[in-house]
């Protein structure tokens, strides 16, 4: 492939479009350097770091419009760790999982591997489509993604009215902070911070209902073996003290705290959701007008506003487009590695300026004209 130089006037101001790690705003780095240097390298059991955690927990409660009695939990590890924690100390007997992408399926696999649980009901869907919840007798946890990072499929956050006491558990890793939702419609809304919150991984957060807290405490008291690092009862206890079991990544917490305060100051979750909807619409509109591209998710109601997947005709090498973009500083537009499609995957997270997304479509057109 010949080298393609995209004119500077066509390039976005910021060329980061990765789905995680995602774009970090300069203001977050400045906040870390000028406002929080005193907390780096200090004890997470002392006031400076605990105050930072408290600020972040309060900011998330405000952002999510947390109902009475809901709490913000956090602990070491990412979403994968949370799945194992939920398997050990949240699912009581049997769970149902919607698998319309890589990450929803992984939670189901974790539950299936647990010898102390009944086999989960995993409801799968073809790539680019969405499976739906089916209230089922004996299921005490209904789990599904708010947004599937691998495929760009989005689901509505809606409580499942199954057996009395059943919990609705939503994987919000790539949706939290960029998609609006009604917190009363879920019992556990969990996520890692490296998407819309523009921070690093290695920690998880969850908005949990009083019913979920009661379930966690009951399972923990049942005598089931639960490793200390996976015990959600320990996460409740430590979170209420504004700390984690082991030392957290303090820089991650600080960058996320700045991002949460920024979103709240702009207008909160409604503002963030409108911004990501604007950005994603630019890409979907572009693809629908293109002669060589089409949105991977065919149903417009299922299309994500924060992760956009665009398929290309077989006459076009999407990998060559991504390579040319990267050579010009427009990075991380590659498809999800396990999906194996001729496509681009573009994050439209809250930190990403919609005008940069508009510039991206111009860059893709420029590259397409020169790839022949």
Write the layout of secondary structure elements.
Layout: H1 26-34, H2 47-63, E1 71-76, H3 79-89, E2 95-99, H4 102-112, E3 121-124, E4 141-145, E5 147-148, E6 153-154, E7 167-171, E8 188-191, E9 203-208, H5 210-220, H6 232-240, H7 250-266, H8 268-289, E10 293-295, E11 307-312, H9 318-327, E12 343-347, H10 354-371
Parallel strand pairs: 2-3, 2-4, 4-7, 7-8
Antiparallel strand pairs: 1-9, 5-6, 8-9, 10-11, 11-12
Helix pairs in contact: 1-7, 2-7, 3-4, 7-8, 8-10, 9-10
List keywords for this structure.
about 375 residues, alpha/beta, Aspartate Aminotransferase, domain 1, Aspartate Aminotransferase, domain 2, seven-stranded mixed beta sheet, three-stranded antiparallel beta sheet, 12 strands, about 15% strand, globular
Verbal overview:
The chain is of the alpha/beta class and 372 residues long. The chain has 2 domains: 16-24 and 268-371, Aspartate Aminotransferase, domain 1, CATH 3.90.1150.10; 26-265, Type I PLP-dependent aspartate aminotransferase-like (Major domain) (Aspartate Aminotransferase, domain 2), CATH 3.40.640.10. Helices cover 36% and strands 14% of the residues. It has a 7-stranded mixed β-sheet, with helices on both faces. The longest helix has 22 residues, at 268-289. It starts with 25 loop residues before the first helix and ends with a helix. The model has no long low-confidence stretch (mean pLDDT 95).
- Outline the low-pLDDT stretches: none
CATH topology of the largest domain: Aspartate Aminotransferase, domain 2
Question: What is the end-to-end distance?
Answer: 10 Å
> What Rg, in angstroms, do the CA atoms define?
21 Å
CATH architecture of the largest domain: 3-Layer(aba) Sandwich
Number of strands: 12
In N-to-C order, the SSE pattern is HHEHEHEEEEEEEHHHHEEHEH
| Gross geometry | globular
What percent of residues are in strands? 5-15%
